[in-house]
Amino acid sequence: MKKLDFETIKFELKENGIGIITLNRPEKLNAISFQMEEELHECLDNLMINLDCRVLIFKGEGRAFCAGTDLNEGIILNTKKTPEGYEKFYYLNTEPLKKKIYHQWRISQLYVKMRKISQPIIACIQGAAVGGGFGFAMAADIRIASEDAKFINGSINIGLSGADVGGSYFLPRLIGQSRATEILLTGRAVGGREAEKIGLVCKLAEKDKLLDSAIEMAKNLLTKSPLGLRMTKQAINLSLDSPSLENILQFENSSIVVTLSSNDVKEASSAFFQKRNPKYPLR
Description:
Helices cover 45% and strands 13% of the residues. It has helices spanning 34-48, 71-74, 96-116, 132-139, 167-175, 177-186, 192-197, 210-221, 226-239, 245-260, 263-273; strands at residues 9-13, 18-23, 55-60, 121-125, 128-130, 142-145, 150-152, 190-191, 203-204. The longest helix is centred in the middle third of the chain and has 21 residues, at 96-116.
């Protein structure tokens, strides 16, 4: 994977195969700017074909996870002319209505890509996770949060639809329709303890130990077959919308046969009988 240099996010790939994406606008509570959107697209596109990254941690720098869309930049979507310096964002070089449509399409594809990349994603959430930031948390595979975390469906609070960046898809599947409906309609803050209680997050950790907790979990995933992890995420994605048990069983059966033919199974079997941890190749 080529070296990735960004301004609004950071990406680190450790030698053991753990990748870390950090939203890096702490002075703006990691609000999503046009540039951050494009840098996330580039990073996720690279991860789509990167076999060296086996598990991904997604976090925010500073006291908040992500405060959602940068509202100061959002004003540009209502302007007839594109301000100087923003011409490079192709979706801004048109009339206001089309700016809004094209931009919404562009940002929403980030959440699709988070589900499409084969690496399991562990989100570390501290402080505010609002709007698009709430979306990042929901699109992850596993969520770890601090007690001060606040999950907020921000769009409903500023006169917009509360159905935004996949929230009306993800949240009912994560916590059930009744709870999800109340949260999406009211836009109230869901704290860390409540999030754990209702199953939105799987674990609470002290704020200064969030990353350590995520790395510990990621290291546990590294003891599993690389191909097995990737195909399990794919199966979970398909099962969310599978019309029947038979359909998903067909995919699961195929995935078992495929992974059974991999060298990963030979290593897993040897490790089991030798009473040691398996040593899978990064790829």
